[in-house]
Amino acid sequence: PGQVVWPAVAVDERPRYRQPMTRLRQVPVIVTIVSQEDIADLRANAQRHHVIQRALVRAAHDAFSQGGVLTCTDLALLFHRSDTRVATLIREYEQETKSVVPRRGNIHDMGRTITHKRTICRLAYLQGKLTPQIARQTFHSPEAVDRYILDFARVYFAIIQRGMTAEETAFAIQRPLYLVEEYSNLIKEFGLEKQRVYDRVGVQIGMDDGRIEPMLPDSPGQNERREQEPITG
After folding, report:
1. Does residue 205 surpass a pLDDT of 50?
2. Distances from the Cα of 175 to the Cα of 99, 160, 161, 180, angstroms
3. Is 135 exposed, middle or buried (0-12, 13-18, 19+ CB in 10 A)?
4. Bigger pLDDT: 101 or 59?
5. SS3 string of the chain?
6. What's this model's pTM, rounded to 2 decimal places?
7. Which residue, 47, 117, 120, 125, shows the most beta carbons closer than 10 Å to its own?
8. Would you state the pLDDT for residue 219?
9. Tell me, what's the pLDDT at 129?
10. Are 59 and 65 contacting, i.e. CB atoms less than 8 angstroms apart?
11. How much is the pLDDT for 229?
């Protein structure tokens, strides 16, 4: 009672350009819509806002633990709320808890949400956590985590060190302008020093042509190990 079977896109199914949902591999997942805890809270006159928010987060984790990822549209249909309302409640939860709720938008890097970028870069640059730890905590693959960390450093190098505009940076590092602007805002928010950025990412800077590339590890511990497989749930 209180549960439903729902088709979710498989965690390891990667999106492709103009690929319809009918072409994506899906897995059946059991999602808890109403729990005994929800009923007890409603009887105690708890705020419905918090009850539905917790239920949305729980459903997202339910699907992910079974190898699937739900979209905000899936959650909106399951809980009879608008897409906008679902996205707002989840975003508020992530901001309050400084965590990431696993859903298709951030697991498959779809859309323009900055939440997971902020979380990943904060864990890397402000807390000094290693890639495998961040990957587990944010439900991302180690490769995706490294990409965010290095893109942050590239934008830092271009805008802070070279004084380039956001438009020039987007052209130089071949990233969308909105993405560069998001990283630029994070750089201002974090207030990091140059050496701290470069020490964390482990980069080799070519001063002649302005390139910034990952440094190959020469000894154990110089760079983070990349042996962990992408997270599949």
Report:
1. no
2. 25, 17, 18, 7
3. buried
4. 59
5. CCEEEEEEEECCCCCCCCCCHHHCCEEEEEEECCCHHHHHHHHCCCCHHHHHHHHHHHHHHHHHHCCEECCHHHHHHHHCCCHHHHHHHHHHHHHHHCCCCCCHHHHCCCCCCCHHHHHHHHHHHHCCCCHHHHHHHHCCCHHHHHHHHHHHHHHHHHHHHCCCCHHHHHHHHCCCHHHHHHHHHHHHHHCCCHHHHHHHHCEEEECCCCEEEECCCCCECCECCCCCCCCCC
6. 0.57
7. 120
8. 36
9. 85
10. no
11. 40
The encoded tokens of residue 184 equal 């630029």
**Averaged pLDDT, 72-76:** 93
State both tokens at 64: 């992910």
